[in-house]
């Protein structure tokens, strides 16, 4: 691994960080004993938040005039709001500095920003988390570099932004507000400082990780993965999302499952309407308790913990309507005890259901784990676990390397993954009838 020692050159009006390459060291990936510098605020200070059309035009002009890739990040209000919209967009480009955009007052009027950065080369950390809310704003990259995914492929054990910045660049970022309610207005100054720091070193981190991937012979792998993230379709809605209610594993009777479903659906409607995170409308724990106890009337309902609170008493009629709806369902309309599944069963059941498939999966997993260790990357990045399970459960008619390659490509594996894994998977498939 080639290490970087980073010196800070805070020159107001210019990019703040110079990276000086040192002689390669023989220490393991992700480890360094060099001095770490605390970075508590952006070198150029925190810019004012762009909230109106005039300021947006100025910012967009600066970004368009900048050079190189654009660092992009967003802040959402997960855990506070039902929607996953962006409440702040952070941008940084060489020659333009950092730009903070509040998209809420500008919703529907972001054309200058779309023209300036849309279709450009973006740098994001954990891009799949940010791309959907950016697409809501009509902001889409032409190409992207995902620093988290790059860190995984390079073999780093810790790939959070702060960890990678420290490992690669020698800085420790000021952190602490990622889980805050970013829908709050006005945004506190220390939150904005944190948000600006998230893009402060992202461009330098890209260059460092790109060099690392190239030295390991993995850059082409990474580029294929980045493009797969960029072009991934939106995830399909879950057929029965209510089955993800925490604690539902304790519910086996169909009538109780119907109660969970009815309460979940009532909560979801309220949460969507009010744009409040569902768990803040009614915790999963309360849904499970009501399903277990089956309160017969409102008095019995509000006697339960949580339902007796002021907010829940105001909504008691909503919850009772859901409970009565579930209680009145005919048996033919009750949910099944087991969720619908279009894929293979959980692997722990394979030995009983199909011992040959279980043997195929065990063999393939062992081979791919060894291969992943050889290439110093997580096995789940070598080949999607779900694709491996599906391929082992229902093998292709042609189990040769060519036939297996075709099956893996059809399942979404990238060319580099197929090249590395097809022979190993084929061998596991061919070992059983």
From TrEMBL:
GO BP terms, alphabetized: nucleobase-containing compound metabolic process
Region (Disordered): 330-353
Stored InterPro entries: 3'-5'_exonuclease_dom, Exo_C, HRDC-like_sf, HRDC_dom, HRDC_dom_sf, RNase_D-like, RNaseH-like_sf, RNaseH_sf
Span of domain HRDC: 253-333
Annotated SUPFAM superfamilies: HRDC-like, Ribonuclease H-like
UniProt entry keywords in alphabetical sequence: Hydrolase
Official protein name in the record: Ribonuclease D
Organism (species): Actinoalloteichus hymeniacidonis
């Amino acid at each position: 691994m080639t290490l970087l020692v980073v010196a800070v050159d805070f020159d107001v009006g210019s990019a703040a960080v110079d990276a000086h390459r040192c002689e390669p060291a023989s220490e393991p990936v992700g480890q360094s004993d060099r001095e770490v510098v605390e970075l508590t605020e952006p070198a150029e200070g925190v810019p004012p938040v762009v909230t109106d059309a005039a300021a947006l035009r100025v910012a967009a002009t600066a970004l368009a005039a900048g050079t190189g890739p654009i660092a992009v990040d967003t802040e959402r209000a997960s855990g506070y709001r039902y929607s996953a919209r962006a409440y702040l967009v952070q941008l940084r480009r060489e020659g333009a500095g950092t730009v903070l955009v509040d998209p809420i007052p500008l919703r529907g009027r972001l054309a200058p920003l779309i023209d300036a950065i849309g279709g450009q080369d973006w740098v994001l950390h954990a891009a799949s988390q940010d791309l959907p809310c950016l697409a809501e704003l009509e902001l889409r990259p032409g190409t992207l570099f995902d620093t988290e995914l790059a860190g995984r492929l390079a073999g780093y054990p810790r790939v959070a932004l702060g960890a990678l910045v420290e490992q690669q660049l020698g800085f420790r970022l000021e952190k602490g507000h990622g889980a805050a309610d970013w829908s709050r207005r006005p945004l506190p100054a220390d939150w904005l400082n944190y948000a600006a720091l998230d893009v402060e070193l992202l461009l330098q981190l890209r260059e460092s990780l790109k060099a690392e991937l190239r030295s390991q012979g993995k850059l082409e792998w990474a580029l294929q993965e980045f493009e797969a993230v960029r072009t991934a379709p939106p995830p399909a809605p879950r057929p029965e999302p209510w089955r993800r209610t925490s604690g539902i594993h304790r519910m086996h009777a169909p009538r109780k499952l119907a109660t969970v479903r009815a309460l979940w659906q009532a909560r979801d409607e309220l949460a969507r309407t009010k744009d409040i995170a569902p768990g803040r409308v009614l915790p999963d724990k309360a849904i499970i308790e009501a399903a277990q106890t089956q309160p017969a009337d409102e008095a019995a309902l509000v006697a339960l913990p949580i339902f007796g609170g002021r907010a829940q008493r105001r909504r008691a009629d909503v919850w009772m309507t859901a409970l009565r709806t579930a209680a009145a369902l005919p048996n033919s309309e009750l949910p099944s005890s087991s969720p619908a599944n279009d894929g293979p069963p959980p692997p722990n059941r394979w030995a009983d259901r199909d011992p040959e498939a279980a043997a195929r999966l065990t063999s393939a997993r062992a081979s791919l784990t060894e291969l992943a260790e050889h290439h110093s990357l997580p096995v789940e990045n070598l080949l999607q676990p779900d694709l491996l399970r599906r391929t082992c459960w229902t093998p292709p008619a042609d189990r040769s390397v060519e036939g297996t390659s075709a099956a893996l490509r059809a399942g979404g594996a990238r060319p580099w993954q197929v090249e590395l894994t097809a022979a190993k998977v084929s061998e596991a498939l061919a070992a059983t009838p």
